[in-house]
Amino acid sequence: MAADGKKMSRSERNYPDPTEVIHTYGADALRLYLINSPAVRAKNFIFREEGVRDVLKNVMLPWHNAYRYFVQSVHSYEEQTDKTFDPNNESGNDMDNWILSSTNTVVEFVHEEMAMYRLYSVVTSLTKFFDTLTNSYIRLNRQRFKSDLHALTTLGKVLVIIVRLMAPITPFFCEYLWKNLRNVADARNLSVIHLIRVWRDRKGLGVKYPVKEVVVINGDQQFLDDVVSLEQYILSECNVKKLTVSQDKKKYGVELKAKPNFRVLGPRLKGDQKKVGNYLKNEITQEELSMLLEEGSVHIHGHEITTEEVAMTYKCDPSKVNLCGNFDVNSDNKTVIVADRAEDENLAQEGLAREIINRIQRLRKSEKLIVTQPATVYCDAAEGTALSTVLNKFQETISSATGTSVVVGRLPAGVFALIYLQYQIMKEAIKIALV
C-alpha cells in the first residue's frame, strides 16, 4: 500500500521511486525495513519512506559508527604503543564478558527466529543490541579503548560475529565491513598456517606431501570457530587431509614441559639451584606451568621464576591417551597444533604425484606455454618403481592439474620433443618429454 493508504499504482505513481530509495538509504536498509513489515506475514502493509530512514538511523548508522570507532581506536593504539594490534587476546574483564554474552544471546535469538521464519522480529532485537553496544559498552569503555588491548579485541570479536550473523540479510554492508574486519579472523588463521608451515620445515616435510590430520587446540572457542570458517582454505594451503579443532589438550596427550636456563638461574638461586631445577623438570604441575606461561612468573621453593629463565615447550605423548598415530606438536603462546605424521602409502603416492605435476609445470613454463595451450608429455619411469606406480595410478589427476595430456611410457622414435629432461625424485629417475 502507498503512504496515502491506497493501493500502489503505476499510473498514479503514488509511491517513491525504488531506485531513489535505494540510492538514498541503501538496499540493505530497504531490505531490513521490508523484513520488519507485516508483508512478511502476508498482511497489508503501508510503505513509508521514513520507515526506511528509521532503519538506517537505528540499525545501520550505529553499526557503522561502532565499526568506525573500532578502526580509529586500533590505529590510535598502534600509534601510541608502537605495537601491532593482536586480535588473539582473551579478556577477563566483566564488561567484556558482558558484551560478548549479549552478542551470543542476539545470535541465538536471530537463529531461532530465522529458523521459524519470524523475520519481522530480527530488526527489533538488533536495534536494542546496537543501542547496548554503542550507548553502554563503547561509551563506558572509552578510556580502556585508548590503551587496553583486551577491550579492542572484544569489540573486534563482537563486530566480526555480527557481520557473519547479518550477511544473509544485509549482504552489501556486511561485505563492506568484512573487507576490513576479516583481518581479525585472518590473523588467527594465518597463525595456524604459520605453525603448520614451521612444523613442516622443522621435520623436513615439503608441502607437496599430504599430512593425514592436524588438530588445532586453543582455549578460545571463537578462535576455533574462525579456524573452522576457513577450514577448506587451511586444508588446501597446508596440504592437510583432515582438520580438527579442540579446547582439550589432555585429550591429545599434550603437556607443557619446562627446561630451566641455569646460566641465568644459577647465579641467582645459588644453593637452591639443584632443588628448583629438579622441580621444574620433574615435579611442576601443568597448572603451575600454565600460570607461568600466562602470567609470566611462578613461585617455586621461595623463588620467583619467570618465563625469561625457563624454556617452555609443548610435548605430545599419544600413548597416555591411547591415540593411534605418530603425533608431533608446534605451538605459540596460545595455540597448539598436533600433527599426525604417520606414514601412509596413499599419502606418499599423492606427494610423488605432486612432484611430477611440479616438474611438468616447470617444463611448460620454460617453453612459455600459456595455461590454455594444449600439450602432451611422455613420462617414463623404470618398471616396478614407486614413480611408475604413481604415474599409472594418478595419470588422470596429473593431466588435469597440468592441463597436459599425459602418456605413460618412452618418447616414441621420430617424435620431436620441445624439451626432454630427466629428474631425480626421491632417489628415483623419471624422464619427461614435452611435445
From TrEMBL:
- One Pfam family, short name: tRNA-synt_1
Q: Which InterPro entries match?
A: aa-tRNA-synth_Ia (IPR002300), Anticodon_Ile_ABEc (IPR033709), Ile-tRNA-ligase_type2 (IPR023586), M/V/L/I-tRNA-synth_anticd-bd (IPR013155), Rossmann-like_a/b/a_fold (IPR014729), tRNAsynth_Ia_anticodon-bd (IPR009080)
Q: Where is the Methionyl/Valyl/Leucyl/Isoleucyl-tRNA synthetase anticodon-binding domain?
A: 96-205
Question: Aminoacyl-tRNA synthetase among the record's keywords?
Answer: yes
The alphabetized UniProt keywords are: Aminoacyl-tRNA synthetase, ATP-binding, Ligase, Nucleotide-binding, Protein biosynthesis
Q: Which CDD domains match?
A: Anticodon_Ia_Ile_ABEc (cd07961)
User: Where does the record place the Aminoacyl-tRNA synthetase class Ia domain?
Assistant: 1-45
**GO function terms (MF aspect):** ATP binding; isoleucine-tRNA ligase activity; tRNA binding
Chemical reaction(s) catalysed: tRNA(Ile) + L-isoleucine + ATP = L-isoleucyl-tRNA(Ile) + AMP + diphosphate
Protein's GO biological process: isoleucyl-tRNA aminoacylation
What name has this protein been given in UniProt? Methionyl/Valyl/Leucyl/Isoleucyl-tRNA synthetase anticodon-binding domain-containing protein
Phylogenetic lineage:
Eukaryota, Metazoa, Ecdysozoa, Nematoda, Chromadorea
